[in-house]
Amino acid sequence: MKFIARIVFIIIAGFFLSNVLPWWILVILSFIIGVLIYGNGFSVFISGFLGGGILWLSYAWYIDFKSQSILSEKIVELFPVNDKIYLIIVTGLIGAIIAGFGAITGNSLRSLFIKKKSGNYYN
Fold first, then answer.
1. pTM of the model
2. Does residue 115 lie in a domain region?
3. Better pLDDT: 115 or 80
């Protein structure tokens, strides 16, 4: 449940905050969610990865669809890619990676302040 909650919070809050704040707000948002909703490292990274990736991939596709691919076709001419869909996929991967690292960094910060349980139950 925490896994899905992290993904949903990153997508919803990232969507609304990205309209008024810079692109790197996704890293800060993922960091905050990684601190607030604790989990193991792999789960937190994957939830941040999926949340940021879904957000940026869908948002890049939406902008490309609404602008009738004017900007993406000009950017494809600048970079050595053959199709605009690769540009949208790379945008989604960049968003996924930065959100995943932001979430795992927040989770690591929280784990510094949590006392670990000992493996011996007889204490």
1. 0.85
2. no
3. 80
